Write the structure tokens for this entry.
Amino acid sequence: MTFKKKLIGSLIAVAGTASLTFGGYAAVNKTVFHANIGISSTQQTPAPQNLTVDGNKLTASITNSNPKDYKLDYNDSNNNRHATFEMQTYDDAQSAADSLNYFGQQDGTKDKLKDGKQATSQGTLGHVYTHWNQENWSITTVTPSEAAGGPNPATFASQVASQLSQYPLPSENVNHGAIVLYSTNESELANTVRWQANKRVYQVTSDQSNLAIQLSHHAN
């Protein structure tokens, strides 16, 4: 299966699961579960209780919890959802890894980002997918093709790389992580950041790429 086909399939799957959500800030970066019912407070998760991005204050609330999984929504003052945080527990670490859609080095047009990172780009269906690997993370940015009025793919990818330098990704006990970010705001929360910690997989979704990055950073 090619990178583009697998990625497109994963993006469709993300759109179908956009209702998954979560949040909460813990003084100690450990998740605590009640024995039979899961979490009862957002403070029992590694994510922040509140987050302000571009002047928009978001507050986390629990939308679902059980002994193995939980979901939180991040809503604004008008109760509009802009992001989610989720933790899922798999049967084993391999199953958790398989859920990530982590990509290694890819073929494509060679691009050099502003910080010197090497990336590759592939175009399909009116979009350009720019990919690079950063430590144990797979990072993919998606822009409309320039023929369709989209920005230069390397410019947006460089912007994302700069934001990731300012807001480092989770690293504690992380096996691998995978990111897919769009240059345009996505009302269906299509921007995703996922990372594996043994049998657990954490996922952030949002309608804006910078929000996905900052929420993931604060869940470190």
Observations:
- The CA atoms of residues 126 and 148 lie 7 Å apart.
- The longest helix spans residues 3-16.
- Helices lie at 3-16, 93-98, 153-166, 209-218.
